[in-house]
């Protein structure tokens, strides 16, 4: 299974692009799509999901142009958009049965499948309560369940961990990891920790353009020997930020321990092993 995105652009007017000359090939496994808010992640995912069409370029699944044959994609697709909505008066069972009917999913295996998903997402105890009474995180988990109803081969999650607590995030990551052997999973986020523990490959984007794509080791290699830590005073921090990319700061008595990225370290710095968050901040700052 192969998803090819070939020089795809989404143009809103003469000077405004949501996506520009974007190209990537995605195969089975988990692709983590990272970018700041406004990077074009949702624009890209909506075109893959056939919610909108590219202005230029071609998106093809197994060599089938999905703009010309959207149903080829849709029958294999599970999509959780960022603005997913539910019917508040239905309970989780009723809502998932309704969504299954919309997807053409039925048969004797439907109820056991719904129960399996509700158990896997820790919703079984609340399954007969109206969804309108659920917390934001619980509604998000119902959305994740509806994505998986038809055992899709293309699974798209747009900022899926919004509203989930730390325990729910871990449960979600475990669930996604189990799906990756047989499907293409695209997980979009601006939170690196949502991506770095489960993604087979990572794509980093900004302003509608692809900055870097590859496995995590390849991306991290771009900032090899550029990550350091040092201790500075609180008063020095503002001027320090003008010449260095500051990744994080933490208090150390009356001073600050600063993790930063630079071609050359300041005095009394210690070299640190780079990680995906370092690479993400570096690439989105310099481009």
Automatic annotation (TrEMBL):
Q: Which GO terms describe its molecular function?
A: ATP binding; ATP hydrolysis activity
Which Gene3D superfamilies does this UniProt record tie to the protein? P-loop containing nucleotide triphosphate hydrolases
Q: Which organism's genome codes for this protein?
A: Polaribacter filamentus
User: Pfam families of this UniProt entry?
Assistant: ABC_tran
Would you identify the family this protein belongs to, as annotated? Belongs to the ABC transporter superfamily.
Highest taxon of the lineage: Bacteria
Q: What is this protein called?
A: ABC transporter ATP-binding protein
- ABC transporter domain boundaries: 3-232
Keywords from UniProt, A to Z, are: ATP-binding, Nucleotide-binding, Transport
- Which InterPro entries does the record match to this protein? AAA+_ATPase, ABC_transporter-like_ATP-bd, ABC_transporter-like_CS, P-loop_NTPase
